Amino acid sequence: MKVLIVFLVGVAFVLAGPHHEHGHEGHYEIKSHDDLVSYRTACAEKVHATEDLVEKYKKWQFPDDAVTHCYMACVFEKFGFYDAEHGFDVHKVHMQLAGPSVHVNHSDEMHQKIVDCAESHKEGDSCAKAYHAGMCFMNANLRLVQHSVQV
To answer: Where does the record locate the signal sequence feature (predicted)?
Structure first.
């Protein structure tokens, strides 16, 4: 469950879109594991995910289907770093992954990986964009994503 939350946080970071800032980076509050659990539950209900799908999510298995796409987009929205109109706020995703009390260098390699994933996954509807960018990020940075959710 914790791993899923970390993953979703990571995915949201990846989907932040083309180097844009939503203008609230300085005001972003790092979300906790409890927040993630709450978001996961709310989003599973919102998209009517089956028990089988929820079990897969807990095991870091995210099928490429419409329900899972919207589930991931929902979780990212709840984290506050994704919205359908603007895409991902890469800076906020990076801040979430870095964790509390860590200075984030937005010119480092990690930041660029997030940007690259967000920019290379712009096809489809909002849910599909969030899913594919998130999977890109997770595949590139699984260990970091897992660590950030377990905190």
So the answer is: 1-16
* Number of domains forming the structure of the chain: 1
Largest CA distance in the chain: 41
| 27 DSSP 8-state letter | G
Residue 47 sits in which domain range? 2-150
pLDDT tens digits along 112-146 = 888 888 888 777 799 999 999 989 878 876 555 55
In degrees rounded to 5, what are phi and psi of residue 83? Answer: -150, 155
**Stated pTM of the model:** 0.77
CATH of the domain at 63: 1.10.238.20
